[in-house]
């Protein structure tokens, strides 16, 4: 429509220059209607809805005023450039929508469901947790799951931005929307399609685009008052100079029309949203999902970051390094059966690791009935079996003193007792077994912590682990501060303490026990492979558990902040310069149109740089 309007303007200009026909005005009118229709309708509808004036109406008044005093060409060019700036804004939004549509297109609509000896083609949306599916080479994975058979290379670039394929094998986790490049895989589904990481990406990007950050909201609030101010200033510019004889009535009307053009805050209004939408698209391509543009803007202000340990700084896949079954009323096989039965009800990574280890001890046992089971985040689990209270968890949970712990671990050689997490098992407060578990610090963790510290960001590790285990991981990761034996409320209190010191705090975690701290932090960041509670509570989700993505997000946030500041300063400076030139009678309407609308286009293009 903008281009068609431009063709009408060119035709009218040629007729005006090379013939005496008065019909050139008709082509200018067509240019007004075709080029200004979309923006005029938008402005009128929003004005009626919000019961307030807006920039679109201001530009309509300016264009009509130009035509009223005989400057048809200038008014038409104003409409043309305003239409093109609107088209650029729409392009930015469509570019962001394109990223979502590209994601949606990667979600397979159908899947091969394995039932006994049959393979059935079913809707991917009908898959339930526990279903077994087959994925052939070259097909996309239809649901989040765990590989139960086969080896392959999985391309996750659509979700994480990483171009290199990841090697997967039995027990590896795979995500919906990723591409199976080589082997034949059988996968056990773990989540409904609506709960998959892939679907969360689509939902989060959609929601974030519709939520303007504080800067944009302030500009929108300012816009309404500013439009009234410009209309008043234009009226005074027409009435005052002509009344006191400084300018003629025609000159006063001309300067009022120029004022309407150059004082319109189009560039200021376009300073934020195109840049924000471009940034959100960029982040989504790299596996960083923001629930709102507010948090993308706020991320660059963070100066304290608190990390959960297991699953965040570490791989979250601990394994039993050593186990001691103490002399008691139960033999090893009986104890293993009881512990296995209790721990299988817990979703904690340590419980899973213990049960993985206990599987090597005879799995044939008589099912044991639990008359009570309680999972206390940050402490452990408690169960009632045949009127005996069993506790499995931390030293405090099992009522083990520091002295007792020291005596127990002192008996072990250094390779077994240095820095591992200790899980105790008691029966009616009698210690009957304990496990030493170790985890591995992620490869990217140390570099990520180092890079954060170069940004003068304080790094804190908060964990429910014992002092011994926490300090070992803390030393490897090289965090600034270590908090150990932390309950969920301890993590919340730590975040509150730093916020009370006027710090901007980010909390990063993946577990149910991290959710309260994620909620209270200025920016809550969840690991995409973490618990549903953490993902629901967090403001930002890292699709893969990769802390280097957090740094990418922070750098992107800093770039966004710089671009928005550049746009705001530039747009205000152009308005002030053009206003001065207008009142000094240096500025003509055509140059006012070019200066004002040109600045709007430059601001939008500057924001589009964030797509890269």
UniProtKB/TrEMBL annotation:
Gene3D superfamilies per record: Calcium-transporting ATPase, cytoplasmic domain N (3.40.1110.10), Calcium-transporting ATPase, cytoplasmic transduction domain A (2.70.150.10), HAD superfamily/HAD-like (3.40.50.1000)
Protein biosynthesis among keywords: no
Membrane topology classification: Multi-pass membrane protein
Highest taxon above the source species: Bacteria
Residues spanning the membrane: 23-41, 53-71, 226-247, 253-277, 568-587
Keywords (A to Z) from UniProt: ATP-binding, Cell membrane, Ion transport, Magnesium, Membrane, Metal-binding, Nucleotide-binding, Phosphoprotein, Translocase, Transmembrane, Transmembrane helix, Transport
The keyword Metal-binding is assigned to this record: yes
Stretches assigned to the P-type ATPase A domain: 106-205
Localisation per UniProt entry: Cell membrane; Membrane
InterPro entries, per database record: ATPase_P-typ_cyto_dom_N, ATPase_P-typ_P_site, ATPase_P-typ_TM_dom_sf, ATPase_P-typ_transduc_dom_A_sf, ATPase_P-type_domA, Cation_Transport_ATPase, HAD-like_sf, HAD_sf
NCBIfam families in alphabetical order: ATPase-IB_hvy, ATPase_P-type
Family per record: Belongs to the cation transport ATPase (P-type) (TC 3.A.3) family. Type IB subfamily.
Name of the protein in its database record: Heavy metal translocating P-type ATPase
């Amino acid at each position: 429509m903008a281009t068609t309007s431009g063709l009408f303007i060119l035709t009218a200009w040629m007729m005006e220059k090379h013939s005496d026909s008065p019909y050139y005005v008709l082509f200018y009118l067509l240019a007004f209607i075709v080029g200004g229709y979309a923006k005029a309708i938008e402005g009128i509808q929003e004005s009626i809805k919000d019961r307030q004036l807006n920039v679109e109406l201001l530009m309509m008044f300016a264009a009509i005023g130009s035509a009223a005093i005989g400057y048809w060409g200038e008014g038409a060019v104003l409409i043309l450039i305003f239409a093109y700036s609107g088209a650029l804004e729409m392009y930015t939004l469509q570019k962001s929508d394109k990223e979502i549509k590209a994601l949606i297109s990667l979600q397979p609509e159908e899947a091969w469901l394995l039932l006994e000896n049959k393979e059935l083609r079913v809707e991917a949306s009908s898959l339930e947790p526990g279903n077994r599916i087959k994925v052939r080479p070259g097909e996309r994975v239809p649901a989040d799951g765990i590989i139960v058979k086969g080896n392959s290379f999985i391309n996750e670039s659509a979700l994480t931005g990483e171009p290199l394929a990841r090697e997967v094998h039995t027990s590896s986790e795979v995500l919906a929307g990723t591409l199976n490049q080589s082997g034949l895989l059988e996968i056990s589904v773990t989540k409904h399609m609506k709960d998959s990481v892939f679907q969360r990406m689509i939902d989060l990007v959609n929601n974030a685009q519709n939520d303007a950050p504080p800067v944009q909201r302030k500009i929108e609030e300012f816009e309404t008052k500013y439009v009234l101010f410009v209309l008043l200033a234009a009226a005074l510019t027409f009435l005052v100079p002509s009344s006191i004889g400084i300018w003629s009535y025609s000159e006063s009307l001309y300067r009022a029309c120029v004022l309407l053009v150059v004082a319109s805050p189009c560039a200021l209004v376009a300073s934020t949203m195109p840049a924000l939408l471009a940034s959100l698209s960029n982040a989504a391509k790299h596996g960083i999902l923001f629930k709102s543009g507010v948090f993308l803007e706020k991320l660059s202000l963070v100066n304290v970051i608190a990390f959960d340990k297991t699953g965040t700084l570490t791989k979250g896949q601990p394994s039993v390094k050593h186990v001691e079954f103490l002399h008691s009323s139960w033999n090893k096989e009986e104890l293993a059966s009881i512990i296995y039965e209790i721990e299988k009800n817990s979703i904690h990574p340590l419980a899973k690791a213990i049960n993985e280890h206990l599987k090597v001890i005879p799995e044939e046992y008589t099912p044991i009935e639990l008359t009570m089971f309680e999972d206390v985040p940050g402490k452990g689990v408690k169960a009632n079996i045949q009127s005996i209270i069993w506790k499995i968890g931390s030293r405090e949970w099992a009522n083990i003193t520091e002295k007792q712990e020291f005596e127990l671990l002192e008996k072990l050689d250094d390779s077994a007792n240095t820095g591992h997490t200790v899980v105790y098992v008691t029966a009616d407060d009698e210690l009957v077994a304990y496990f030493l578990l170790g985890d591995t610090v992620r490869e990217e963790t140390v570099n990520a912590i180092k890079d954060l510290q170069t940004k003068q960001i304080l790094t804190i590790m908060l964990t429910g682990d014992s002092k011994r285990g926490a300090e070992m991981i803390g030393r490897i990761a090289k965090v600034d501060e270590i908090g150990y034996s932390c309950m969920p409320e301890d993590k919340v209190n730590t975040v509150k303490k730093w916020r009370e010191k006027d710090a901007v705090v980010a909390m990063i975690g993946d577990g149910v026990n991290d959710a309260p701290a994620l909620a209270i932090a200025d920016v809550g960041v969840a690991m995409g492979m973490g618990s549903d509670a953490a993902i629901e509570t967090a403001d930002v989700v890292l699709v893969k558990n990769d802390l280097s993505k957090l740094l990418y997000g922070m750098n992107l946030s800093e770039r966004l902040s710089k671009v928005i500041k550049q746009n705001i300063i530039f747009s205000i400076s152009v308005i002030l310069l053009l206003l001065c030139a207008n009142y000094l009678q240096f500025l003509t309407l055509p140059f006012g149109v070019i200066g004002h609308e040109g600045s709007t286009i430059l601001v939008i293009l500057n924001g589009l740089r964030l797509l890269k």
